[in-house]
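FORM 12-B: Structure-to-Sequence Request
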């Protein structure tokens, strides 16, 4: 039972990330613009990412060397994505490109954070 909450939070983090980054990737690469009706979905995903990310971070028992530095860099990229999603207006294709790039970098950093935590 003690595994249920961490597992649920890990699921929430990954599911919210899939919805947010997948939606923006589809908008940028296939449609060419982000439909405004995606915004409430994006806000929901951002809420899920924040709640589960904070839980993941606060429930860590120890931090390997350099963990905080890479985590800080990840948060800066996440703030970039959140700011673009909040301020987005139709036709801002360049900012969608920025989200796709920041999202890809966050995925690399997150994989590294997980790897250094398990090693
Ligand atoms: C768009 C923004 C974000 C993306 C794309 C993202 C993506 C990811 C991914 C793919 C993982 C690996 C999941 C796993 O293997 O369990 C992860 C782990 C994690 N994320 Fe995020 N995340 C984002 C934002 C955040 C935020 C805002 C926080 C903190 C408030 C956060 C905190 C964490 C923590 C603590 C981990 C665990 C890393 C470890 O294994 O030590 N993330 N994130």
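FORM 12-B RESPONSE
SEQUENCE OUT:
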């Amino acid at each position: 039972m003690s595994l249920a909450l961490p597992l649920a939070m890990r699921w929430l983090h990954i599911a919210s990330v899939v919805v947010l980054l997948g939606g923006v990737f589809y908008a940028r690469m296939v449609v060419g613009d982000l439909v405004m009706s995606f915004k409430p979905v994006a806000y929901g995903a951002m809420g899920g990412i924040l709640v589960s990310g904070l839980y993941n971070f606060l429930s860590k028992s120890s931090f390997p060397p350099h963990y905080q530095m890479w985590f800080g860099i990840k948060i800066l990229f996440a703030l970039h994505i959140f700011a673009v999603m909040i301020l987005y207006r139709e036709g801002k294709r360049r900012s969608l490109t920025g989200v796709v790039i920041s999202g890809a970098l966050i995925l690399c950093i997150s994989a590294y954070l997980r790897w250094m935590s398990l090693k």
